[in-house]
Amino acid sequence: MSIAFNGFYAVKNVDFTLHEGALHAVIGPNGAGKTTLFNLLTKFLQPTEGQIFHRGVEVTALKPAAIARQGVVRSFQISAVFQALTIRENIELALLRRSGLQWRLLGNARRDKALVERTEQVLEQFGFTREADIAAAELSYGRKRVLELATTVATDPSVLLLDEPMAGLGREDIDRVAELIQTTAKGRTILLVEHNMQVVSRLAERITVMARGQILAEGPYSEVSSRPDVIAAYTGGTH
Amino acid sequence: MTTIFGIPMALLYAQLLLGIINGAFYATLSLGLAVIFGMMGIANFAHGALYMMGAVGAWFMLNTLGIGYWPALILCPLVVGAFGMLLERFVLRRVSHIDHLYGMLLTFGIAFIVQGIFRFWFGSAGLPYAIPSLLTGGVNLGFMFLPYYRAWVIVASLGVCFLTWFAIEKTRLGAYLRAATENSKLVQAFGINVPVMIMLVYGGGAALAAFAGVLAAPILQVNPTMGAEVLIVIFAVVVIGGLGSIKGAIIAGFLAGIAEGLTKAFYPEASTTVVFLLMAFVLVVMPTGLFGTKTQAAATSVSLPALAHESAFMRWALFGAMAIGLAIAPLFIYPAFLMKAMTYALFACAFNLMAGYGKLVSFGHAMFLGTAGYVTAYAAKTWGLSPELAILAGTASAAVLGLVAGWLCTRSSGVYFAMISLALAQMIYFLALQLPQTGGEDGIQSVPRGALFGFIDLSNPTTLYLFVLAVFLGGFLFLSCLIRSPFGQILKAIREHEPRAQSLGYSTDRYKLATFVISAALSGLAGSTKVIVTQIASLTDVHWSMSGEVILMTFLGGVGTLYGPVLGSFVVVAMQNYLSALGAWVTVIQGAVFVICILTFRRGIVGELITFVSARQREKDRRGIAMPAGSKVVTGT
């Protein structure tokens, strides 16, 4: 598929397959079109040409929310949490839809036992139990990223698209988040955009290298990372 | 005589020509509006007032200073332009760093002040202004007599339109201006004084409005309210042309004038509505107008109070205090005032659901209040329905209208949303003015109060008061439960981060539409109840100034807070009630209060209070027990 902005192709003729159960990373220099690819896959952008399939069914015409309801859930490059809400509320929000409560105009979500239990589980899993009732805005940057991951995982997606989950994190956070990603990867498909090569080599089974809106190479990390054209693309010597 | 569809050709030509003349005014006025919107992002509500200043200014110059038409045509725009620059420098610039919505609200308050002051000085009657001697007389075109002055209006406005378009699209200064709208910081980094440029832009827009005012003086009624009437049409014109597009404003201006003229020939009753119909049609086919760019304004970001987490006890205590206070208040305060304030309070709470929790600031909410009022009045008076059924009918009609309007409006956000809702409301206003069932200028009077469920007699003042109290408290309780419900939580999430809410699987458009419908229905409930109380449904309830009042009430009390709109309504209604002896000054005071509110306490009375209290709470927490261990600061990078 392709997408053009006023004739400029940000992503051009990208043919990309994400296999079920894989932990796949997309790497490439800035402006390569990685985030655009994400926006296309989750329908925040409409491709100019081409089609998108999920489990054999065409989803090209769906809206972002409909894609998410199919279990394809993304995170954002700039930390996306609901700042004014508490951590507990952030997680509840992710759970409301699956509990079938999202159109309830009256009553309190806290009366739903299953929802409360599940919220506690997620809070504990991501280490938020003690600070559950403070506003998300008061969290440090690293903890916000963890919270975003927590809410993303809480929707129990089958496909997880993580846009630079390590960006702006400190060393100790990187290890923790990498671990979390590894744990959540069980039974799910994960697509990862990441600049931190250590993390990519540690997590990803397959990688796709993008440059200038096109796919440069694809394959296992060890194989692809040593290819001269890939190294050239990163050091800026290409074309 | 030749006819087309039964209309004599001569009449058709004549209306066409009149349409072009009107179009010339529309084009000149919407041009200034488009320039200001394009460069500053502000929908300039003061534009009508500036136009009026031009016309009244010309009259004043002639009658007091002896300055004739031709010097006034130059002097008035200069004076009004200078006034505009002062406004920008000392008022608008203070909010230029925050959401453009606040700039728009400021111009709204300024319009009130200017119009009020001019009404005080010049009265409301028309001020006669003679056609300059050079342009008296005219020429017979065969099908009609064309006065020279009207021909001059077309020529002059076409000239001004061309010059403005040329200056912005083809000169270096225009290039700087356009660049500054894209990225003002970058342009500033090039060494260009952007603030001065913005000041000149607003001054220029004001001068254009005043120029149109002077042009209009000899042929239209000169009076202090002339701007308010034309303003809304101009907004519709700018929306049709595409917000911010200069070419679009000019073309749409003439188009609107011609459409109006032709409708006058074929179906005169619809001539005032046709511009708004045209707008609705264009928006359905092309959501950004004829020449609008694709980029839509991001969602509005209103200043909200800090998060308040009050306990359930506290919540019920506050509600109980309000209920008891209102129940015993008629012992001390005039009950009619209280009932009026409560219906407005419910209206403001409904508006607040959208503005504060849905981030959608509507400028046309009066359409729901008024429509429901008319339906209730008609149902109670003509059909003889009992009050509860009449109110139900009114509320339901507001909800249906909300569904249609919401479908049209929620496709856009921010200033676009405000403008479109305003124009739709104006369509409803003209319908109310012209439909035979609504009674035109008189409205529907002496609506029977009847008996609730057939046996509770509402003509008894105490019963009536208790009924209004029950409706208000019920509506309030419903809203306070709604914002705490799962639906309300999702609404808050959309307000905080819409794409994230979408990526969690919530169809945000549907939530916005649902919010719109609920808000419309509750506004309708307020309007219906108001009619049962006052026994009259009138045009004031559908007029755009009513939409303005509800914004004032909500922002004054505190947008996004539960009790803010209630407090704001009581303050505004009290001002209107107890200051009514001051006449035109009430408008000035209202405008001034609004301007001061936006400039100094943007979160409103209750909003600032909550922020203050929660800041102190946090300070106490910090000094008291240490923060929970889990929240230790983790350094980034």
Characterization of the model:
The complex is a heterodimer of chains A (239) and B (637). Chain A has 9 helices and 10 strands. In chain A, the strands form 3 sheets. Chain A has a 6-stranded mixed sheet, with helices on both faces. In chain A, strands 1-2 form a two-stranded antiparallel ribbon. Chain A has helices spanning 34-41, 64-69, 87-96, 113-125, 141-154, 171-184, 197-203, 221-225, 228-235; strands at 3-5, 8-11, 23-27, 53-54, 57-58, 72-74, 159-163, 189-193, 206-211, 214-220. By secondary structure, chain A is an alpha/beta fold. Chain A folds into 2 domains: 3-81 and 139-235, P-loop containing nucleotide triphosphate hydrolases (Rossmann fold), CATH 3.40.50.300; 83-134, no CATH class. In chain A, helix 3 runs parallel beside helix 5. Chain B is mainly α and 637 residues long. Chain B has 2 domains: 22-285, Orthogonal Bundle (ABC transporter involved in vitamin B12 uptake, BtuC), CATH 1.10.3470; 320-617, ABC transporter involved in vitamin B12 uptake, BtuC (Orthogonal Bundle), CATH 1.10.3470. In chain B, the strands form 3 sheets. Chain B has a two-stranded antiparallel ribbon. In chain B, helix 2 (47-65) crosses helix 8 and helix 17 (461-482) runs antiparallel to helix 20 (508-534). Chains A and B meet through helix 2, helix 3 and helix 5 of A and helix 17, helix 18 and helix 19 of B.
